[in-house]
Amino acid sequence: MSRIGARLTGGPGRRTAADAPTDAPTDAATEAPVAPGRVPLAGHAPWIHRDAPGFFRELRHHGPVTKIYIGPRQVHAVNSHEIVRELLTVQARAFDKGAMFDALRVPLGDGLITAAGDRHLRHRRLMQPAFHHDRIAGYARIMSERSLARAAVWEPGTTLDLVPEIHRLTLDILLRTLFADPQDPELRTAVKDWLSVKYHSMRLALSPLQAWAERLPLPAGWRPPNAGPLRRLVAVQHRIIETYRADGRDRGDLLSMLLAAGGPDGGLTDAEVTDELITLFLAGTGTVSASLAWTLHEISRRPDVQRRIHDELDAVLAGRPPGFEDLPALVYTRQVLTEVLRLHPPSWLLMRRAVRPVTLGGVRLSPGAEVFFSPYALHRDPQLYENPDDFDPERWSHDAAAKAPRHTYLPFGAGSRLCIGEDFAWTELTLALAAFTAHRRLTPAGSTPVRTLVGTVLRPDRLPLTAHARPS
Ligand code: HEM
């Protein structure tokens, strides 16, 4: 058991009556046990603060559903993949996304990520065609071109911190797939300014001070972030939408699809389109950047894995740029990415809130009850994955992958809230990885270990790598 696990079972500070050990008789049909380690006022927050992913990972030792406290706020943590499946599929309609998303709705509008109930269903149906296979084939050309262009600036023999490079690349790709003319200088500046505002949503969701501030007449811990950048971005988007509506042309981009979307109860209004564009900026940049950064980090330390990627790229591409039609043949490259998203799922902690009385995994929840589950914790559960901390793309070879139980691999979630950008993300990641490795061998630079930054996504703090020319 890891150190945090030992701390949890040993329990810091005073054990309270509520800290019943998991094996104590509990009425499983009504109450989940409280995870040990709860301290007065702060609840479990000190352990979460020290190592949040590790904390959620260790909870499985204390039951399939455990109660944890963030200050006074009670949260049910689901630690079993079967109950996560129940939450995301069978019982999905009994839940919305919860308090963190209510807070995000203020600065971000009500796009697909925050929307609930019928609004979510309607928007999901209207947006789905923009992510259809045929459209992604069109976006793939942009992904390949932009990735090759960025990789080309990286001269052999030089060292670069890839974190900002990758961030620039994913933003560039998203802008060019959303808007056929992304060179609009006002748009670029508005998006950059808006992305630079920190929303700290995960930090607030895990903050005991925030939880107390919501209950006591204290000055609120949360204040809406600077609204200026959002206002400017919305204004630029409205101007662009007007131009598109005026001629009604399909420019091959995502925005054309959002504007063309229609159904029995009409299409998306301009304000709804604006909310969705903002949601896509948020959902489609940090997640892909983190995944690509972790991928380059892992393969830079594994010459054997890089060699197999090189062999595959040489055989499939024979020196030409990678394209959408190559994806089915890049089998090993996909295995590598699948393993990276298991080991480092960017969306490491997901949340729901009961909207009506519901029984989940035998535990009764009242309306308003909050539920957390962690794809990171599931992906590193030794009962689900052998040697879960090892980076082993071989576990996704055809025969091995076929044996994996369902709903144990959740980098993109599942059920009706499954990531709408999943195919977009696989395409972008595969083409970008091919572009960065086809003509280069990568090695880590320096000996300082890469640290994991924990926010809404898990990402490496820095990624200094040296590029070497590959003999052709
Ligand atoms: C590796 C990259 C990505 C990862 C790991 C990822 C992960 C996820 C996860 C886990 C969810 C479900 C959240 C939940 O159930 O609470 C989600 C939802 C979503 N993602 Fe992604 N995502 C990625 C890339 C993208 C991209 C590229 C886009 C768009 C261009 C996108 C747009 C969305 C949207 C709009 C939702 C909300 C879907 C809904 O609620 O119906 N994501 N994503």
TrEMBL record:
InterPro entries in the record: Cyt_P450 (IPR001128), Cyt_P450_CS (IPR017972), Cyt_P450_E_grp-I (IPR002401), Cyt_P450_sf (IPR036396), Cytochrome_P450_Monoox (IPR050196)
UniProt superkingdom: Bacteria
This protein's UniProt keywords: Heme, Iron, Metal-binding, Monooxygenase, Oxidoreductase
Keyword Iron belongs to the record: yes
Biased composition (Low complexity): 18-32
Stretches for region Disordered: 1-32
Protein name (Swiss-Prot/TrEMBL): Cytochrome P450
Similarity comment: family membership: Belongs to the cytochrome P450 family.
Claim: Membrane is one of the keywords in the record: no
Short name of one Pfam family: p450
Gene3D superfamilies according to UniProt: Cytochrome P450
Organism this protein belongs to: Streptomyces nigrescens
